[in-house]
Amino acid sequence: MRMSHGCAPVGEPPTPEQVEQSRRRMSPPENEFPAGVGLTVLLGRTGDAAVGITKLEAFSTGFRFTLAVRLRRARPELARGGLLMLIDPRANRGIEIPLPDRLLLGLEYADGRRTSTLPDIRPAAIAGGQDLRLTQKGGRGGDLDADQTYWVSPLPPAGPVTFVLAWPSFDLPESQTVLDSAPIRAAAERSQVLWPPQPAAAPAEPPPLPRPASGWFAEPPTAP
């Protein structure tokens, strides 16, 4: 039987508990204050481009970091937000970014779990919701720099954490940078729980749209 949301069979709506579990996997806990890991790492550089990770912060359920991209010279074809589009294709829906132009980022844990910025719609391969997830969060960019925040869940096990970078159009072939997970795990233990987790609030029903005071359009749609 094919599964969705880690637990619910495909074709059946997920339960509120499953929705809440998925939501917490996709974002840092809102009831926690993170602890800084104290690491900045340059993943790759040339004479004209550099890519690294900064602002590494750990929570009890994962860690967050910022991918920092810097260019020496602006490229005319990347004016007005084009650089950020190479990092986050969601920045402009409807525009297809060729794969060689995209900045690809991946992570791999010591136990073999891996994830990347390439979309993967396969069901979770590991039971219990412990598949490795890399979720894009907020980002900003100009002609010479861009910063994209990512959320990684769950925390890594003991051993190496491998960051994989590839950006062919900027002469950055695939490379690996290996970090020790110990500082991330130690920082997670220092994160502070502020209050008990709050359940997600049900979305409020939008107010009715204004209608003319009289005439056919004054009446809202009705079911037969």
List keywords for this structure.
3 helices; 12% helix; 224 residues; four-stranded antiparallel beta sheet; mainly beta; 14 strands; 35% strand
Proportion of strand residues: 25-35%
Tell me the number of helical segments per DSSP (H or I, 4 or more residues long): 3
Silhouette:
globular
How many angstroms does the end-to-end distance come to?
37 Å
Number of beta strands = 14
Q: How many structural domains does the protein architecture include?
A: 1
List the helices and strands and how they pair.
Elements: E1 3-4, E2 8-9, H1 16-26, E3 32-33, E4 35-36, E5 41-45, E6 49-58, E7 63-71, H2 82-87, E8 104-109, E9 114-116, E10 133-141, E11 145-153, E12 160-167, E13 172-180, H3 182-190, E14 192-193
Antiparallel strand pairs: 1-2, 3-14, 4-6, 5-6, 6-7, 7-11, 8-9, 8-12, 10-11, 12-13
TL;DR?
12% of the residues lie in helices and 35% in strands. By secondary structure, the protein is mostly beta strands. The chain has one domain (3-218).
Any overview of this molecule?
This protein is mainly beta and 224 residues long. It contains three helices and 14 strands. The strands form four sheets. Strands 4, 5, 6, 7, 10 and 11 form a six-stranded antiparallel beta sheet that branches. A four-stranded antiparallel beta sheet has the order 9-8-12-13. A hairpin with a 4-residue loop joins β8 and β9. It is globular and about 70 Å long.
